[in-house]
Amino acid sequence: MTDRTSVGDRLKRLILHSTGAAVSALSALPVVSAAGAAGGDTVGGPELNWKCSLAADDAEVCDVAAAGDGGYVAVGAATDGQDAWIANINAGGTVEWSSHVACGDGTDVARSVAPVVGGGYAFAGTSTSTDESDVFLVGTDQNGTRQWTRTFGGSAFDFCRALVQTRDGGFAIAGSTQSNADEGQDMWLLKTDAEGRFEWVRTYNRSSSDALGDVVVTGDGGYGIVGSTFGDGTDCWVARADADGAIAWERTLSRSDVDVARSIVQTDDGGFAIAGHTIIGDDRRKDAWLAKLNAGGTVEWQRTYGEGTDDLAVELVRTDDGGYALLGTTITAGRERTLLVTTDAAGRREWLRTLSDSGSVRAGLADATPGTYVLAGTESGGRGGRDADGWVARYSAPVDGSGP
Predict the structure, then answer these.
(1) CA-based radius of gyration for the chain
(2) How many structural domains is the chain composed of?
(3) Helix, strand, or coil here: 92?
(4) Does residue 93 surpass a pLDDT of 50?
(5) Residues of the domain holding 166
(6) Maximal CA-CA distance, the chain
């Protein structure tokens, strides 16, 4: 008989360390190298304000979001058991409270968190056992005390990648499902009411294996969704959907045999910007990748950024001046470091910095203070023989155009 814990632990590591679309293993415009287009960095790099280690919490981090109290809320998984994990970190980088939460019948990993309008938090993730995995959604009060739990899924493996609160106070979950697929897996968008009760689900089948990586709520109450399709290679798929999940338009971006989209934001013109990574050059290194689409889904431009062997963008945020910040990981000689890139509104690089005092980035956000970014991730060599420990850190960059 298969040991449930060992299978759960292996799947937990896969979910924790996946690059969005890689969970499934479970364009016409030219790409411009933004380093050349920008002509070099124009400002100095960010400075570390604080770094909060979560080793004492025995936790790995998958997502971080701004909390209503000026601090931050982080979610992930407990490394000493099978529970999901949530914590509040104040503006000074100190853990105010944390909690282990059993969400399903298997090994639980919280993948995404959203502050709730009116107070409290909601977080979503995946609970994996030997034969299947389900998606869970948990609502808590402002102190992290659970108020309700919902689970969704069929008879096979279903995965959560991203959670957003919708304009009507409910929630939308993006991920993938094998339960509704004839074979392989499909992209999956699920909608609930404000207390997590199921309203509808949409599946999108575009290849033998598909997975959504992120979702954003649009100004009219619809959705921008981005993911990956897996056929002969890996392509980026981006779509605009209405409030009921029906596709208004969709585009496939394929500039190499591996194009992975991780994050999407809506732009001021009603279009979208997406970020992830793509293969560059004969040496097949991975570069961070940013693409802009207009409101009708036409690709306006694409740019790549990189200095290491592999540079991976996992989060895209808008900056106060109308540009973008890509947050992620750079890998050189097997060593993972934090990557931060800022651009202007046309994607031209303003600065790129790698930070030696952090590890692999899982998520990030632009803080309320201009030029300040909060990142969350893991670093290898965890305490007590663990593979890795979680961390949350805040960095500030010069905002006046002058270097340090």
Answers:
(1) 20
(2) 1
(3) coil
(4) yes
(5) 4-26+32-396
(6) 63
For residue 387, what pLDDT is reported?
60
What pTM value is reported for the model?
A: 0.87
Tens of pLDDT along 168-208? Answer: 999 999 999 998 756 788 999 999 999 999 999 999 988 87
Q: If residue 7 lies in a helix (H) or strand (E), which one and from where to where?
A: helix 4-17
The 3-state DSSP class for residue 232 equals: coil
Nearest alpha-carbon partner for 163 in 119, 201, 214, 228: 214
Rounded Cα distance between 339 and 324, Å, is 14
Residue 269 lies in a domain: yes
Q: Is residue 183 part of a domain?
A: yes
365 Cβ contact list (under 8 Å, min separation 6)? 64, 65, 66, 315, 317, 373, 374
402 in any annotated domain: no
What would the two tokens of residue 81 be? Answer: 């058991």
Q: 223, 216 in Cβ contact below 8 A?
A: yes
Asked if the structure places residue 403 within a domain, the reply is no
**Calculated CA dihedral for residues 222, 223, 224, 230, nearest 10 degrees:** -130
Read off the amino acid at residue 127. Answer: S
Supply the CATH number for residue 36's domain: 2.130.10.10
In 167-249, which ranges are continuous DSSP H helix? none
> Which tokens sit at 168?
């009507």
